Automatic annotation (TrEMBL):
Superkingdom, taxonomy of origin: Bacteria
Ranges where the Cupin type-2 domain occurs: 33-99
Xref: PANTHER family: PUTATIVE (AFU_ORTHOLOGUE AFUA_8G07350)-RELATED
Annotated protein name in UniProt: Cupin domain-containing protein
Amino acid sequence: MQHTEIIRLGAGLEIHILLDTLDTNRQFTLFKVIVEPAAKVPAAHYHDQFDETIYGLKGLLTLTIDGKTIELAPGECCFVPKGAVHRFENKTAESVELLAYAQSGVFGATYFRELAEVINVGGPPDAGKLKAIMLSYGLVPVSG
């Protein structure tokens, strides 16, 4: 049984690493995300090297995938193919929990730890550093 590592990104976003890239021979990453109401979430982005599947566990998550808005409820899932511009947010007053499966295992706990070092310093994070971290793991931020 794997030990779950919890990585906090700011005040409202928590990543629970369930299976890291090192646990799966870099085949996939499996992690739970807790999104508090009005949490700061990642900028709209796409993945240039991997697909992602998101499964709702608790609450209602609002996803935008290639301009289409999807409300993801518990028990529902959606597939985010490589190259699809997407973002998510919690528009409700309750916390949201989701399970994310990213294949192949290009990014994992190390990615989230690096983000946490920049985000959790207090004050506005360095956007240039965040973008560089994202790009180094195959996540490409999209402005607008």
